[in-house]
Design a protein that fits this description.
By secondary structure, the protein is mainly alpha-helical. The chain is built from ten helices and four strands; from the N terminus they run ααααβααααβββαα. Strands 1-2 form a two-stranded antiparallel ribbon. The protein has a two-stranded antiparallel sheet with strand order 3-4.
Length: 332
């Protein structure tokens, strides 16, 4: 057990330093090409911080652990929104650019509706469904890149903090190195956390399905948490929000989609956890996890899209939902 704890601590250290380098590199690239922080957060940063989820789910799919792949994707979205983004909002609610948020939000709900619709209708995922979601992911990236190149993205509101002007300006080659090394450190650190955190959890007798939705989801979401906290400390709140919205889309259209494309799977009582409602046995993923995923994203995005700002009550409500979700997983 001591060895697992030591590797876990090393993984945490890699995540913290990797997150610091990755944020510095991302902001440097944004300034170099005059791209808004939110756009960088919704593409480059999101891809880098979603690497752990992709690696864990792809590996799980290859090994036939479909519950782990599915639970990791859905659990990471819930964790990203109702823990990580919630902390950022509760600490520093701010004005956001509604126009720049539209594409990540619309793409997320489009992918989520397809994802949930297939899950409810067919109780599983086929390879064509995975390919369709992957195509949606590619379309999102292309649209974001085209908008950045053409310079049509609106400027962010002046709410980035006074400290931004005093930031050290790095040469372009160094910002690229920071991005690459930071992403690598995040990926390796998250992998160590997941592997050894899961071993610790299993040693304590925690079921695999609960591990997927909580420990693994939280472990693979730690890069987003580190990036969010680092961005907040450096005065780049928009980078954190863009990262969360983009990462949630990627969890469906890249992580879950890649898992289904690698190895299609069906919901089975022996693989997916079930609960009894009204005397009928039902899959917990369909009656609890997926609805909670939609609920937390609606709480996050609807007020932001209507009012153009985030409120502290959103963060508090999301944190309460996450606490209840975790309590259900362990006590339900």
């Amino acid at each position: 057990m001591l060895v697992h704890v030591l590797w876990f601590i090393l993984g945490l250290a890699l995540l913290i330093k990797g997150g610091d380098w990755f944020v510095d590199g991302s902001v440097g690239v944004a300034k170099k090409f005059k791209v808004p922080d939110l756009l960088i957060g919704a593409t480059v940063v999101s891809i880098g911080t979603t690497l752990p989820e992709l690696m864990v789910s792809a590996t799980s799919a290859f090994e036939g652990h479909s519950a782990m792949a599915y639970g990791n994707a859905v659990g990471s979205i819930i964790c990203n929104t109702s823990l990580i983004c919630a902390i950022t909002i509760a600490v520093a609610p701010s004005v956001i650019n509604k126009n720049t948020m539209k594409i990540p939000v619309y793409f997320f709900f489009t992918a989520a509706v397809i994802f949930a619709g297939v899950a409810y209708a067919f109780k599983g995922f086929s390879r064509p469904v995975g390919i369709i979601l992957l195509a949606l992911f590619v379309a999102y990236i292309v649209i974001q890149v085209v908008k950045a190149v053409k310079g049509k993205t609106d400027e962010e509101p002046e709410a980035q903090g006074e400290g931004e002007e005093k930031e050290k300006v790095y040469p372009m080659w160094l910002t690229v190195v920071m991005l690459v090394v930071g992403a690598a450190a995040i990926a390796v650190g998250a992998r160590l956390l997941v592997n050894h955190g899961t071993a610790i959890a299993e040693g304590l007798g925690v079921p695999e399905t609960v591990i997927a939705l909580t420990f693994v989801a939280l472990g693979t979401s730690l890069p987003e948490l580190v990036t969010a906290i680092t961005s907040l400390a450096k005065g780049h709140g928009a980078l954190s929000l863009g990262n969360i919205c983009g990462a949630n889309l990627f969890n469906i259209a890249l992580v879950a989609a890649a898992s289904a494309a690698i190895r299609p799977f069906n919901f089975e009582p022996g693989t997916f956890s079930t609960i009894v409602i009204g005397g009928k046995e039902m899959f917990a993923s369909l009656v609890i996890d997926t609805p909670v995923m939609f609920l937390v994203m609606l709480i996050l995005t609807v007020p932001a899209m209507i009012k153009g700002r985030l409120y502290r009550w959103q963060g508090i409500a999301l944190l309460a939902i996450y606490a209840g979700f975790c309590a259900f997983q362990f006590l339900g």
